[in-house]
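Homework help thread (please don't just give me the answer)

Our assignment gives two proteins as sequence + structure token strings and asks us to describe the second one. The first is just a warm-up. Here they are:
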Amino acid sequence: MEKKDNIIRSFEKDPINWYTDIVSKAELMIYGPTKGTMYLRPYALSIWNLIVKNLTKEFEKNGVEEVKFPLIFPKSLLDKEKKHIEGFAPEVLVITQIGDKKLNDFNVIRPTSEMLFSDYFKKTIKTYNQLPIKLNQWVNVMRWENNTRPFLRNSEFYWQEGHTVHNDEDEAKSFALKIHQIYSNFINKALLLPIISGEKSLNERFAGAINSFTQEAILKDGQALQIATSHYLGNSFAKSIDFKIQNSKNKYVFPFQTSWGTSTRLIGGIIMTHSDNKGLLLPSKIAPFQIVIIPIKNQQNSEKIEIFLNNTFAKLKRNFRIKIDDSNNSFGYRMNNWEIKGVPIIIEIGIKEVLNQNLILKLRSEEDKKSININQFNSKVISNYLKDYDQKIQKKALNNFLNRKIWINDLKDLKTKILQKKVVFCYWIEDSKLENKIKIETGATIRLIYKEKKLATAINKNQQTDQVAIFARAY
């Protein structure tokens, strides 16, 4: 039986329900029984697994190994690093009782694992010649959220968290920046998201970090989304649990650490950047199916269509993720279903195509269909179409960002531009109190700070600076 409720509400008229319609009707998730949790459906998990595969490959090139650490650990361990626990305290889920038994030493459900990794490192690393150690895990975490939205802000979400230990402070910071660049390349080239990169302000820095480097996506509605961060931690976490190693001069010293992560929030970023009123548009590198072939059923000519269909499939299956949808749903329903799911290329095959020896091809990024003679059809042709498709959706996303971006040179203009859903660039000198005041008045925060090549007067102080702050509202 066919589903008839397959209409996506308009982004322009109803952006909240537009988003909800897409995550539901593209069969990405359904809401879990506890607030802020999700049942991730097979299609969403396929997208996530492709992200995992691509990033893992890049991490491994840089000597990172995979581990899996506990979901639950003593709250006393989390409490050892004061700045860290202060930052996470409102979001931490604490286990105080098991059955009828109340616990003396409470446990927490993993909000992040800096202290857990530090404990592991202390137990396994004794001397400088074991370093650097580079580890990563793909796991779930819990951070209680009052205002939740699937993929963008969940109480439970899936992510990777990498942690490293180094002998040298410069080496540790350099590796944090290396990971920052890996994220940047992947998000830009594979996910096709327009991003801004830089360092978090003191107010927005990860709890316990010395430096937090961030990748921020600018979404369809003008809001920013923090989607990947890399932190240089110094040796404060090592000090908090007395984790020392013997250096080359036989002295015991505290080593230097990094942590870095990205999450299923990437999927939210993809939805909120590339999607339209028909549904998802998935970048080809992380689309579960890059091509779906839809046969137009004809009982009298079913054998001819099947032979033609199988020959087409055989030409493509080695080089692309491809599916044949020969379900009992109508042609119109099948076409609409795969458009909602953001498949880059849909190929139609019916008796007319068999007789004319051609294929009807539709790119998700375009309205018009293309007719291709079977003799001119091969993997190279499809690769070119996918490349063209990716370029078009990336350009559209970039244009949205450029239309949102605005420079100001007067603090009085900041609130007005934020209310206009702009992403505000301005020369800025660090001022945590003013930053907090702006957040209260406008809802905007400094998403990141970076350095320009030229000096200009800061909008908050009558001084020259090369530092630029980017203000925006964020999820």
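The one we have to describe:
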Amino acid sequence: MIEELEQQLDSFNSAERERTLEVLSGEIEAGRIDLPTPGEFVNLHCHTFFSYNTYGYSPSKFAWLARKAGLAVAGTVDFDVLDALDEFGQACRRLRLKGCSGLETRVYVPEFSTRVINSPGEPGISYHMGVGFPHAQVPVEQQGFLHSLKETAQRRNRDLTVRVNAYLSPVELDYEGDVLTLTPAGNATERHVCLAYAHKAVETFGEGDALTEFWSAKLGVDAKPLGLPEGRDLLNTIRAKTMKRGGVGYVQPDSGSFPQMAETNRFILACGGMPTHTWLDGASDGERAIEELLDVAMGTGAVALNVIPDRNYTPGRQDQKIKNLYDAIERAQKRDLVVIGGTEMNSPGQKFVDDFDSAELAPLLPVFLKGAYIVYAHSVMQRHCGLGYTSEWARTHFGEAAERNSFFERLGRSMQPDQETNLAGLSEAATPGEVLDQVGE
């Protein structure tokens, strides 16, 4: 029964997801499901099916699995939308899971216009995040910006599909019928497009030799080892060969393709979120100039740094990847940036949670746990009383970022999900001590 219910949590029907979570909650309350005491592992970077989750996880499904796995804090991040926020927050509170939500997008950084940052082959373009948003409904004056993020991405994908259709003919997609049906709220990504092409190829050629011959010819590689009809290697190869740099569908972005980092950070701050610079692996020209890069990011409002730990080390090897990871985190800590991480789960094979028991990541667990508690505390404070990490209240009471980090970590560690509403009604006259008193600290 549990497996069936877990499958229903991924339904595109929101009412069905809500009913299913209610049933699971009832099983917990009846003592028929035992959940572990939350531990110390965290994942603050999980994409849901509102952008692309390779396992099809809804916000409710991720909350359920995170609670079932005993995560200390969990967080969703979707491309260009906040569609997961309300559902994930409700699920977290029902399951007594500490949670938070944000979005990821791409921005232009004029100071790095000639240097690649973290978007391969694209100088000046950077993946960027806002975390700890208090509400999915952003202020009226910011709604146009949020809408434009999604619309720009969808227009780019539609245009890309036209170009790829011409190359992959007779395998051609109808964007509305073949792509948008793969996601519940019309926010398709390149990965949805790849999956749709895999589906359409099977419709056109079946699953035999004709399919293998088609993909081998179009992708310029032997398709037999790619896991036909829709395995991970096939999907990644479709994306690399047709949509990324050098592919028939690719168009090089420029200064007008994405909003500037400074503009995006103003939007995030106005919505009550925490602007977050994302770090890839330290190998690009831009990331090798990490001090300059962090100066620019922080100068435009960034207060946090996101990394993807699992892609930045090889178990048992002390190579340049792990050295770069430790260096980036050390530099971020010296600047009192909040450090967060997660596994994304928007590509096949990615883990549910990082292996923080590994020799490479175990020393970094306290850093990621601290960051997760800070973002959780911020999102709750901002939602219930407007006194979050980036608020005027926080700047007034904590002269240094290190003091602010210490307070919000302490609050996030102590506060339990069923105490969150205790913070409602606090005013700017509240002292940090009075805030902690509200959660019995």
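TA reply:
I won't write it for you, but here's a hint about the kind of observation we're looking for: The two ends are 40 Å apart (CA to CA).
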